[in-house]
Amino acid sequence: MGVIEAVYENGVLKPLKKLTLPEKKRVKIIILDEFIRDLNDVFGLFEEDIDLEKLRKEWDRDVSNRH
User: What does this protein do (predicted)?
Assistant: First the structure.
């Protein structure tokens, strides 16, 4: 499916666009803001600004190549 943008309100993640998922489908969610912060805290990797769009494209490409 790729990257889905959502808003967190009142304890619920609400996608900004309609999803084409079957009911009760289980998914895993990666919160990029916290993921990047955690990587930086653990490894000190990112001393410059991160291009999130480039990161998303690389993530989608890497995931789709694992089939």
Answer: Antitoxin component of a type II toxin-antitoxin (TA) system.
Helix 32-43 / helix 52-64 crossing angle, nearest 10 deg? 100
Dist. CA 49–CA 66, nearest whole Å: 28
What the block records as the tokens of 7 is 């808003």
Whether the Cβ atoms of residue 46 and residue 37 lie closer than 8 Å to each other: no
Name, in order, each residue with C-beta under 8 angstroms of 39's C-beta and a sequence gap of 6 or more.
Answer: 45, 46
The 10s digit of each residue's pLDDT in 40-57 is: 776 665 555 667 777 777
Predicted TM-score (pTM) of the model is 0.45
Structure tokens that stand for 11 in this block:
């304890």
